[in-house]
Amino acid sequence: MTTDLPARMLRLLSLLQTRREWSGTELAERLGVTGRTIRRDIDRLRDLGYPVEGTTGHAGGYRLASGTAMPPLLLDDDEAIATAVALRTAAGNLTGMEETALRALAKLEQVLPARLRTQVAAVQQATATIGWEPRAPRVDPELLGSLAAACRDHESVTFDYTTRHGGCAARRTEPHHLIASGGLWYLLAHDTDKNDWRIYRLDRISNLAPTRHRFTPHPVPGDDPAAYVADKIATAPTRYRAIATVQAPADTVRRRTWALPGRIEPLDENTCTVDCSSNYLPGIAQTLAALDTDYTLDADSHVITYLRQEADRLHRASKPRAGHQAGQGPVEQI
C-alpha cells in the first residue's frame, strides 16, 4: 500500500499520463488503496490545477484532459532522454519549429537529474547537424499539436483551406495521420462532405476548430498512410513536366536520389524512368543532377531552356581564370 501521500500523488499522476482512461478500480489496485482514497487524491490533483475528468460507463473512470494551462508532466528516465534528444534533433532540422524546440529543450534540461543530463550532453557532444537554408513554410506548433490530438482521439475537425490556385473553402474532416515530407507537413484525413480521402498541407490550413464529435476511423487504402500520401504527392499535377529515362536499375536510382519511390518506374533490369516533374525548376535540376548516370530527357520547353541556362552558367564558372591554370595547386577531396 502506498501510504506516503506525495509519493502516491506522483504515482497517480504518472499513471494518468500513460493511458487515456483508467477506471477507479484499476487505479486503486495499482496504488494499493481504496476507491475512496483514489477519489480524494483525484480531488487533490484538481486543486493543484490538473484537469482530471470523470468518465461515464461501467464503474466510471478518470482521464487527464486538456485544460486552460499546461500542467507539469512526469517522465521516466528513458522518456526524458528520448524527449531531450528528439528536441535537439528538431531544433537542428527544418521542421519549421526550431525556436520552439530550443525553448522546450532548455526547460527540460534545466530540471534533468545530473545522471540524465550527462547522458544527454554526451549525445549532443557526439553529434552535429548541418543547417540548410529553410525553404519550406514554417509550421504553427499549436496547429500541429491540435491536429495530432485530433488524430489520436478520433475527433473530427473543421478548418479553412487555401488551395494551390489561391481559392479558400471550408472543410470538415476526420483526421487520420500527419506526414512530414520534403520540409512540408501534410494531414491525411477523410473528408466527410466528399466521403473520400484528402491530403492537406498544414501551411494552408487556418481557423482549425474541433467539433467534439468522435468517429470510427476508416481504413487507409493499403494500410500505410505514408505510402498513400507519397503516392498521391507523386501523381499530383505539376507546373513543369520532366521525364528522364535513366540507364540504371530502378533500385539503384532509388538509393541515389530523393525522388519519391512512386515516381521511379523500371523499364527492364538495367533501365528505368524517373518522373522529375515539379512546380519548381531548380528542384527538377537538382533531381537530375543526383541521377549520376546517363539519361535522356523528355521535358517541357521551359525546363529545357532553364537547364541550358544553368549548364551555360556552370560552363562559364568552370573555365580557368587568368593566372590559374587547370590542375594548378592542391585540390581538397570531399
Percent helix among the residues? 40-55%
Rg estimate, integer Å: 27 Å
What summary fits the major beta sheet? 5 strands, antiparallel
Secondary structural class:
alpha+beta
Name the strands of the widest sheet in spatial order.
Answer: 7-6-5-4-8
Strand content: 15-25%
Distance between the termini: 63 Å
Kindly provide the name of the CATH class of the largest domain.
Mainly Beta
Reported by name, the CATH topology of the largest domain is: SH3 type barrels
How many domain regions?
4
**What is the overall silhouette?**
elongated
Can you give the mean pLDDT?
81
Provide a count of the helices: 11
CATH architecture of the largest domain: Roll
Please provide a written account of the structure.
The chain starts with a helix and ends in a 16-residue tail after the last helix. It has eleven helices and twelve strands. 40% of the residues lie in helices and 23% in strands. With 334 residues, it is of the alpha+beta class.
